[in-house]
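Sample entry (363 residues):
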Amino acid sequence: MDRSDTYLLLWHIKGIGYKTIRKLEEYLDFQIENIWNINVSEIHKIPNISSKIKESIVQYRSLCYLDKIKEDLLKNNIQYITIDDDKYPKKLKNIYDPPYVIFISGNEKILDEFSIAMVGSRKATGYGIWCAKKISEELSNLGINIVSGLAIGIDYYSHVGALNGKANTIAVLGSSIDRPYPKENIKLMRKIIENKGAVISEYPLNSMPKPAYFPMRNRIISGIADGVLVVEAAQKSGALITVDYALEQGKNVFAIPGNINSFMSSGCNKIIKEGAKLVTSTEDIICEYDITLHKNLTDKNNLNIESDENIIISILKKYGSLHVDTILQHTNMNIKDILGILNILEIKGEVLEIGNKIYTINT
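Predicted structure, serialized as tokens:
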């Protein structure tokens, strides 16, 4: 029995996690595949492992159980890669506590491609939604993959924006792939897979979501990405856990600023003060990397990165101070997009709200 099969089998035994596998590796002189060959009495002599786990190893240490695991994965169209496999994502292998096994539905080849993780609040505002969709689509049109967590809110719209673009998107789950959470995003998960993206998890089949799983999956979100963008987050948002992991992993951290009176932007504004790079356009992200962008997608005029902002600025210059409803009448945009654009223009110092949703050029 090889090492890959050993990791897969152990990962499916209830009660066995990272710490137990490490202890087994140390006891077996880092030849963990030898667990198949040692006798029962020696298994019971392994130190610092509970008797219950030792009994489980004895019970499930069989080709029959391993074959059943592989059969179930095949039925669910789920692939797996173990940490000793050459296909294991290189960026993920370098993090602290890399998963011994990752399960994948979709395109496994994209896991080593250049990508940006986008995270944020589940209680996204219209401004946050607009930013997530806009930035993710523009990055995708530059050939940059988007990584997020398939949660409601910012995660959802980051995936949607990426799907509207030309690159791929990767969803990292806090449950097993056959038990996706939240259920309302199952259609989005299927769309990601159908569009040559990938859905990944470290959790074996039939693993329901647990509160502890989500902080753990955040290390994978940042681990497979080349940088992390926080779109919208309160000061105690779970998205900031991803930032902590990113900093530990030596990844770039970006944040979109928000209104200083907005509770939902307080986390972003805080990490910007602490050193995260302020982002108001995709160029703020791209300039941090020496990357070759997707062919024929590097022309800013073709991408219209800031065309929406320019449209509104032109309207205000032409007509003077306008109520947001009047701005709406002069564009083909929806009200949420307009409010999001105006919010960014306020942050840039290019427009001012002079009261009651009336905006003017900041001269």
